[in-house]
Amino acid sequence: MKGYVFHGPGRSAWEDVPDPDVKEPTDAVVRVDAVTICGTDLHILKGDVPEVGPGTVLGHEAVGEVVEVGGDVRTVRPGDRVLVSCITACGRCRYCREGAYGQCLGGGGWILGHLIDGTQAEYVRVPYADLSVHPLPGTFPDQDAVLLADILPTAYEVGVLNGGVRPGDTVVVVGAGPVGLAAVATARLFSPERVIAVDVAAARLEAARGMGADAVADAREDPAQLVADLTGGLGADVVVEAVGLPETFEMCTRMVRAGGHVANVGVHGRPATLHLEDLWIKNLTLTTGLVDTYSTPTLLRMASAGRLPLADLVTHTFPLDRMEEAYDVFSRAAETGALKVVLGGPRREVVAVGADAEKAADGTGIVP
Known about the structure:
Layout: E1 2-8, E2 11-16, E3 28-36, H1 39-46, E4 56-57, E5 62-69, E6 81-84, H2 94-97, E7 123-126, H3 129-132, E8 133-135, H4 142-145, H5 151-161, E9 170-174, H6 178-187, E10 194-199, H7 202-211, E11 215-218, H8 223-230, E12 236-241, H9 246-255, E13 256-264, H10 276-279, E14 285-287, H11 296-304, E15 314-318, H12 323-331, H13 333-336, E16 340-344, H14 357-362
């Protein structure tokens, strides 16, 4: 089969790899029908995630059909259409028993495309299938469902729920890429007074308005002042960091009110300064986290009921065998207008969906 293989920083290729098979009785093998590229995959290609060894098939999000299961798998069987979660859970260790699947001690956590071969291939082996794949209704579109493998639960759990968003809050989301936009959409579920999106790209800010942001701010034009003006000088109740840069993290700490909450979602490749000389007196709560995906069943039900604006997050689709082209488009999002790219299905030309095709063509679309 073919898979997208990491060969070291700056080097990767769509190439022949061995077919996966069942190694443990809790495994399932899934034929990949749809897959997407995550900003974390770009971090890996830059060398920011040294645990990923050369020769690893990348990817941790997919929709597909189960083709083989081990003898201990009880919840799915061959022929079932499933969502492959970005997090694998043994279900037995202390963390899994607490629902903290991302911290699994039994061989799970974030392992697909990280510690073992991932989903950006024609087939993928999924350990601990009973807790790590989710059956899908046949009417759920692939390109919508695949967004529930990572970005929606990440934004919802690590941003909105960890941030403690409540009715009447002012919520600021710094970074209007895919996860930031998902944070805007899921924050709206809790009836905040306002949601403010901060970014440097006008197209992304416009997309944030489409996802429910009440106000937007250019990160280069003192967004902290806008937040202060809108809150009577208090600052935001919750600030979600969805970029992963030292500058944006420090910006978040300047916009949060005393007694407020900074929820860090971004993947940081460089150290960020925590200015405790200023913050120690403010009674702040700072949370970090890897998604656990305990919310995936809830999000699936909400998405099936049309409560989540999933289609607007996908800007480009590709056939699976154009993985290298998809990576190129995704990595040059400022030029291409890419937000989420979805690969799969029969061979077809690249199209823009859920966004104005002209924006994708002229480079004014959204950047992750």
